[in-house]
Amino acid sequence: MKSLLEVFFTSLGGAVVVYYGVKLLLVTKMLYPKMWFPLPKSFFSSMGEWAVVTGASEGIGREYAFALAEQGMNVVIMSRTKATLEQLAKEIGEATSRTVKVLVADFTEDKVFGDIEEQLKDLNIGVLVNNVGMLPSNVPKRFLEDTDLDQMCKTLLPGMENRGKGVIINVSSGIACIPFPMYSLYAASKIFVERFSQGLQAEYKEKGMLIQAVTPFGVSTRMIGYQATDMVTLSPRDFVKSSLQYLRAGDRTYGSICHMFLGWLIRSTPRKILYADSVLNGLQEYVEKKQAKTRSISTLSVA
User: Fold this and answer.
1) Model pLDDT, residue 144
2) Within 13 A of 153's CA, how many CA atoms are on the CB side?
3) Which of 52, 31, 37, 14 is nearest to 169 (CA)?
4) Which residues on adjacent β-strands are paired with residue 211?
5) Quick one: CA dihedral 37, 43, 48, 52, positive or negative?
6) Does pLDDT of 184 surpass 90?
C-alpha cells in the first residue's frame, strides 16, 4: 500500500500536469484565433447599422474605422481635426461604399458629450471603439500624465442594452500589465480603462453585450513617433486586423500573439530587474535612438 506521502506527491504531480496542460491549451487557442473564436461574416453588421470610433483621425482609430466599414457598417468618426476626418471619410466611402459621418469633438471640453449625444441620438449604433487617449511625451519620462474619458460608454450603452446586443472595444495599453516606471501615470490610467471595461462586461454580458479591453504594446502611430515596424511594433492596420480576431477571446486581449508573449515576459521578469536604474535608463535611450532613426529615414525619404 502506498504511503500517504506517496499519494500526496502523486496527486500533486498530477495536479501540476493538468494545470500546465490547461495553460498550454489556452496558449494554443491564442495561436489559432480564427478556429477558436470564429466570427460570422455578418457579425458586426448584425449588431446595428452604425459603428462609432473615437480618436479616428489616424493610427489605431483610423484602422478600426476602415475595418468596421469593410465589415459592412456605416461609421461615425470623431476627433478634433476636421480636415483629416473629412479626408478619411472620403477614403473610407470610396473604398467600401459605406456612409461615413464626421463629428468634430474635443474630448477635453466638458460640454462635448451633450453635443455628441444629440448628433447620435437617431442612429442605430451597434459598435463603439473607445480609442481616445493622449501620451504627452513620445519618450518615457519620470512623470507623465494622461486623460482617458469613459463618457462615450455612458452615452451609447442604453441603446445597446435596449436592443440586447452591441460591441464596445476600449483601447487600453499593454504597459498596464504591471506598475510601469517611466510611464507611471499613463499606465495607471490605462489599468483604469481595463478594469472599467471588464466591470462593464460583467454587468452587461447577460444582456447580449460584448465589451472588451484591447491592450497593445507597440503600434506605429504618432503617439510613439511612428517607429519602424518589426516583430513587436506593429502597423495600425496589422494590429487592428489581428485584434478583431480575438473579439470573442475574453474581456481582455493583447490583440496579437507577439504582444501576448511580450506581456508574459514582462510579468515574469523579477521587478528588481525591471525597476533597476540601468534598465530604465536603457529603455529611455533605446526609445530615443529608435525615434531618431525613424526621423532620419523620413528625412532621407523626403530629400
Assistant:
1) 32
2) 25
3) 52
4) 168
5) positive
6) no
Residues noted as catalytic: 186
pLDDT tier at 147, thresholds 50, 70, 90: very low
What are the structural domains, with CATH classification, of the chain? Answer: 39-298 (3.40.50.720)
Spacing of C-alpha 301 from chain mean position: 30
The continuous run of DSSP H or E covering 213 comes out as: strand 209-214
CB–CB of 149/132 below 8 Å?
yes
Residues 235 and 220: beta-carbon distance below 8 Å: yes
Q: Give the largest CA-CA distance in the chain.
A: 83
Distances (CA, A) of 123 to 24, 75, 127, 195, 197: 44, 10, 11, 28, 23
Say if CB 263 and CB 199 are below 8 A apart.
Answer: no
Out of 27-41, 105-119, 165-179, the most confident range is 165-179
Residues 6+ apart with CB under 8 A from 171: 60, 129, 130, 131, 133, 193, 213, 214, 216
Q: Which among 39, 108, 97, 106 is positioned nearest to 66, based on CA atoms?
A: 97
**By the 8 A CB rule, do 268 and 295 touch?**
no
Give the three-class secondary structure for 155. Answer: helix
The alpha helices in the chain, defined as continuous H runs, are 4-31, 33-36, 43-47, 59-70, 82-96, 112-120, 151-163, 184-204, 236-245, 257-268, 271-274, 277-302
